[in-house]
Amino acid sequence: MRLIRTQDAVGHVICHDITRIVKDKEKGVAFKKGHVVKEEDIPVLLSIGKENLYVWEKRSGLLHEDEAARILAAACKNEHMRLTEPREGKIEVFSEAEGLFVVDLERLLAINSIDNMMIATRNTLQPVKCGDKLAGTRIIPLVIEEEKMKAVTAIADERNPILAVKPFARKRAGVVTTGSEVYKGRIKDTFTPVIAEKLKAFGVEIELHRMVPDEKEQIEEAIRELKEAGLDLIVCTGGMSVDPDDLTPAAIKGSGAKIITYGAPVLPGAMFLLGYFGDGTPIMGLPGCVMYAKATIFDMILPRVLANVPVTKTDIVKLGNGGLCLSCPVCHYPNCGYGKGV
């Protein structure tokens, strides 16, 4: 930076906050660090005693914080996102769609490991709505080396941003309710209404619903019927434990689905099953806890499935970190640590 006469400062960038004090009336920042001086600013600056100013001296190889902030934000911005205008090196990222928020964690770490800049995001693999804040970025000093910003672009640029919002694409679901006690009318089906409510929150409707007894062949037949109907998602409820009459996992496998996992390091939700048919159609077997617990593994996996984000066995295993629900007196899910394992 260099010192110049205030009258000569038009077009230059102020290097520090300038405070204006009016006795018994005002005390505050009149001009913030990074402000570009305009002609009309000169009388104001002189009136608060600023005959000279320290300004940023543009040199080759250095970028102003706002210029660099645009580069940093471009590394984040993807489809279905909007950026705020830079202010003091800060830019925020907002969603313009309902979907699943996905962060490339390795590249986020790489960028945040570069000195004098930062990107803070909400948790990855969480559902977001239009207007939700996704991330905040900042260039920390007033000026930063151009080489550092080139390193950011090498990690992620406008063609390959590190953030994504994957819109929920699967909208048509089918449910197979298993259990002879329900099929024969001995008890009321209280499971399907819970599933319907959870699906509706993502704009998904149950188009087909079949009730079947605890017979493997009939469960398989019901699953195949829903699959042949071309639905986007199949959910099976009941019969998910290891009792002799619990045949749903075997029926799901017998229907032709490839089982990704039967069991998960999550409580509640340990007996969860996830599989995929050859065309990518997902099928889930839900344990009884989904019927009564506020949040379970179903709430963690459902948004990923609806956004067409493949879920692997490793993804499920990682949920063990944060997979224990603390059963708080007032449930704050998803605004808690439950299910945030990555």
Write the layout of secondary structure elements.
Elements: E1 2-5, E2 18-22, E3 26-31, H1 41-47, E4 52-55, E5 62-64, H2 65-74, E6 81-83, E7 90-95, E8 99-103, H3 105-112, E9 117-121, E10 126-128, E11 133-139, E12 143-145, H4 146-155, E13 163-167, E14 172-178, H5 180-183, H6 191-200, E15 205-212, H7 216-228, E16 233-237, H8 248-254, E17 258-262, E18 273-276, E19 282-286, H9 289-292, H10 297-306, H11 313-318
Parallel strand pairs: 14-15, 14-16, 16-19
Antiparallel strand pairs: 1-4, 2-3, 5-12, 6-7, 7-11, 8-10, 8-13, 9-11, 17-18, 18-19
Helix pairs in contact: 2-4, 7-8
Account of the 3D structure:
With 342 residues, the chain is α+β, with helices and mostly antiparallel strands. It contains eleven helices and 19 strands. The strands form six sheets. The protein has a six-stranded mixed sheet, with helices on both faces. The longest helix has 13 residues, at 216-228. The chain is elongated. The model has no long low-confidence stretch (mean pLDDT 92).
